[in-house]
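Notebook p. 47: complex prediction with flavin-adenine dinucleotide.
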Amino acid sequence: MSSSNLQIINSDCIIIGSGITGLIIATVLQRKGIKTIVLDKNSEIGGRLATRTISAENSIVGIFDCGIQYFSVDSPQFQVWVDDWLEHNVIKQWSRGFAQGKEDGKPRYCGINGMSGIAQHLAQDLDVRTDTKANEISYEKKWLVETQGDQQYQGDMLVMTSSIPESLSLLDASFIPLPLEERFSLEQIEYDRCITVLALLEKPSNIPAPGGMILENEYLAWLGDNHQKGISPYGYGVTLHGTADFSNYYWDSDDAEIAYKLVTAAADYLDSSVIKYEVHRWRYLSPKAFYNQPFLTLLELPLIMAGDAFVASTVEGAVTSAIAAGESIGQRYKV
Ligand SMILES: Cc1cc2nc3c(=O)[nH]c(=O)nc-3n(C[C@H](O)[C@H](O)[C@H](O)COP(=O)(O)OP(=O)(O)OC[C@H]3O[C@@H](n4cnc5c(N)ncnc54)[C@H](O)[C@@H]3O)c2cc1C
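Predicted complex, structure tokens below:
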């Protein structure tokens, strides 16, 4: 690449990660008149809010929630966002519990067009750049984020919403030290992994209504029938999540072996042959420990870190962290 093609794009705040945390922070800041650019290394927005499509012959198309399957609400501040998504037909209530035969009465929500619909709704008025990995960052009066392309991003404030190990390795690669105490706390945060199989079936599954099952099987943690859920009208698509033990043991196995093991373990519930499948490996499924504040901010540098690792390994945890981080950035900008 010739350096003459290099373009520097300015914003008030650069946010790394277009998962729910990054998108909520960008929305909060935009409402305060603070300009943001959100960067994501993936080709799709949403991070773990991921909806995927598998096409087969004869116009059979399976649409699958690949990451998070549903969420619930506890806090009034999260309820405000959820009410907005309900009002805009982005989400719907799927059930009131998945423990078989035992509904607990608490609403479980899902995206009407899949979970990634929440990310698309949030991103519609934001500047989000996909296929844009932050490779290196530097700070000299302003942040400069270098990516693999011809564009670099400059801003007063940097927000990292990538997983903690990814954020730490970006800081290390960029020779930006954190204070020892903060660094030590962040290093303690490890993540569970999850292997997911998306299976497009020949005929409807045998999974009981409403189409989601939490399992305590050696191999399987979850079965989600996307057809019953309503997001896959033209294909019987089932999402199978492996347990943490299964995912650790088979992480490096080939896709065919993984699919065979999980599909066989679920055979009674699938009750159909599989037309096509895909395997997805979630390296950062959920943090096993949490930072002791809703976000991390430094006095020395205009740097904020936020995400589910700061509150709880749920969408609500991520949103709680994002709202607190967004408000704090707003305050800092006023000074
Ligand atoms: C299989 C699975 C099941 C789940 N089940 C539930 C559930 O039942 N209920 C619930 O509430 N939650 C569930 N969750 C958790 C929930 O999805 C997460 O808590 C939430 O989505 C986290 O959002 P986030 O924005 O903090 O992180 P993420 O969504 O992970 O976003 C981080 C983003 O940063 C990007 N990124 C990383 N490094 C870089 C870089 N260098 N440059 C640019 N971009 C970068 C990544 O591509 C990613 O898009 C589940 C998650 C998974 C994977």
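Notes: The two ends are 40 Å apart (CA to CA). The chain has ten helices and 17 strands.
Next step: compare against the earlier run before touching the bench.
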